[in-house]
Write a structure and sequence with these properties.
With 197 residues, this protein is an all-alpha fold. The protein has helices spanning 3-17, 28-33, 38-67, 76-98, 100-106, 117-128, 133-161, 173-188. The protein contains 8 helices and no strands. α1 (3-17) runs parallel beside α7 (133-161), α4 (76-98) packs across α6 (117-128) and α7 (133-161) packs across α8 (173-188). The protein is globular. The chain starts with a helix and ends in a 9-residue tail after the last helix.
């Protein structure tokens, strides 16, 4: 299989069959908190895609060119978190400068991208699966796109539910978790189409 075909396989698998959010359940905190409106979800989703793509490449480079040659692989968690935190700070400053409304709408969830377990999970999966740099970029971007697809679907559903009559015991987090479970079942329908190494 050619390098391009492998990268495309990794990318599409990360979006559909191995969705970081609905298959691995990573990044649920910000998913549940920022999925009330489509605009907010789209803004946070764009930030997550950007951060996932860039940090997966940066962490791959740090791992293969610094940690492995210096025999410091045991520091990968700390290094990955520092790279992610620094990158999120840059993204936060850019969003604040470009769109103060979006910055205020995202609120606490924007800095929480730093501790979003999906971001760290992508970097760790990339190392465990021994991806090349191109595959790591494809996996990071695909995971981000998969995360956006899931949060936009949830935000659209939650916006429609505002006008729906929901039983009192299921309002809020209850119905949101049920919908997330149904969405996860729908994504399981893609299993077997393609898998990650």
């Amino acid at each position: 299989m050619s390098e391009f075909a492998t990268v495309m396989s990794v990318l599409f698998a990360a979006i559909f069959t191995n969705n970081i959010l609905l298959t691995n359940y990573l990044g649920m905190c910000s998913f549940l908190g920022a999925s009330r409106e489509v605009k907010t979800a789209l803004g946070l989703g764009a930030a997550v895609v950007f951060v996932l793509t860039c940090t997966s490449a940066l962490n791959w480079l740090c791992y293969h060119y610094i940690l492995v040659p210096l025999d410091l692989v045991y520091l990968r968690f700390i290094v990955f978190i520092v790279v992610i935190a620094a990158f999120v700070q840059v993204v936060e400053m850019i969003i604040e400068r470009l769109s103060e409304r979006l910055y205020n709408a995202l609120g606490i969830f924007l800095p929480l991208i730093t501790v979003n377990c999906a971001i760290l999970g992508v970097s760790l999966f990339m190392v465990i699966r021994e991806y090349t740099l191109a595959e790591a970029l494809g996996y990071g971007f695909g995971s981000g796109v998969g995360w956006v697809v899931a949060i936009l679907a949830m935000a659209g559903i939650r916006e429609k539910m505002v006008r729906s009559k929901i039983p009192r015991g299921l309002e809020g987090a209850g119905i949101t978790l049920i919908i997330a479970g149904i969405m996860a079942l729908a994504f399981m329908g893609f299993n077997g189409m393609m898998t990650l190494n």
